[in-house]
Each structure stands twice: as structure tokens, then as C-alpha cells.
Amino acid sequence: GQQVMQIPQYQHVQEGEDFTTYCNSSTTLSNIQWYKQRPGGHPVFLIQLVKSGEVKKQKRLTFQFGEAKKNSSLHITATQTTDVGTYFCAGRRSYNTDKLIFGTGTRLQVFP
Amino acid sequence: NAGVTQTPKFQVLKTGQSMTLQCAQDMNHEYMSWYRQDPGMGLRLIHYSVGAGITDQGEVPNGYNVSRSTTEDFPLRLLSAAPSQTSVYFCASSYFYRGIDTIYFGEGSWLTVV
Lengths: 112, 114
What we know:
The complex is a heterodimer.
Chain A: E1 4-7, E2 10-14, E3 19-25, E4 31-37, E5 44-49, E6 55-58, E7 61-65, E8 71-76, E9 85-92, E10 101-102, E11 106-111
Chain B: E1 4-7, E2 10-13, E3 19-25, E4 31-37, E5 43-51, E6 54-57, E7 64-66, E8 76-78, E9 87-97, E10 100-105, E11 109-113
């Protein structure tokens, strides 16, 4: 079955350092989505990428979708304590009708 | 506009009991799904639905039933609860527009089976 893995599983950084999480799918995806979940909260949608090689930015966050549409990355520049949480990628094989499978997640801890 | 509403928020069950987790959305979304999240783990898809009257299995469907009689509601039934079903359950709904699907999660239901 479809598997979506993320590395690293945990990352501890000093405030101001950069952070990157990588997402790899066993199958080609029609789109990739990223979510953030604060401790005790629910996942919150951040962004969706649909095109091969696509790059999108949201302030300090940069999202990339690989050329083969099987991997993606999220990079945070100059982390802040408000960035603490778990970041998940999620993907569908087929647009609109296929199930959305979540990655294993990367938990980010930021020390002031 | 309530978004995605899950009830109950917390529940303790005894092994073998049955219960239904309710999920309702008021956004007229066609796609709804249920996930479970175990401590320190990612979200695993239990069941999903692409519209009223249509349901399909996700990654971990065993021990759970669903139905989708209306667009708004997507209840998740545990027929005979087991300790392995202790988890946080999230319901989600989404819509598709111009190639983008936007997903909204409920706040979660914390279930403990003793």
C-alpha cells in the first residue's frame, strides 16, 4: 500500500536556527499537502502543492514538491518558539477521489 | 459557521462496549474522513467518503464501521471496543476547487478503552 515517510522524526533547534523536514512517498502523488499540529491540538492546513518542481513560500516557510512528485520538503528559516509543533505532509495518488495518506510527522522543538 | 463538529470530546469505554463518534460539517463538503492518532504518532486513515451513500476503507478499517446517509454527517461506530482502539480520533471534511482541496479537521475525540 501507499506509504509516506518523513525525516527526521524529531528535531530540536535553538531559536533563530533553520529547520527542514523531508517527506517521501512510495508512489507518485497528484498533490502534496502540509499541516501543522500544536501539542493537544488538531492538524491545521498550511499549503498544497500540485505541480512537479513547484516551490511556494509563506513568510519564513518554503515548501517544495519534487520533480518526480514523490517527495517534498518544508524549510523554516530562523525558527521562532511559535513554530513548535508537529509538521505532517499528506498526499493523494489521484486528485479528488483518492484517500489522503499522512506522513509520519516531524516534531519540532525550539529552545529560546 | 461551525465547521467540523465532533462529539463527544472525551469518552471512556469498557472493553466490548459499542459507541458512535459523531461528526457533522455545515460546509456542504463532499469528502469526509476519519483518522486515528496514537500518542507520538501520525494520523492513520480509518474510513473515508467521497459523497453521500459512498464509503471506502482506509489504512486501518478493522473494528470500525461508517455510513454516510447525508452530506453533513459521517458517524464512526465501534462495534466492540478493544484497548487497542484507545486513541484520539479526528474527523475531517474537504472540498475541491480549481485543483485545490482544502481540508478542515474537527477538534478531536479522546477515547480510552479500559
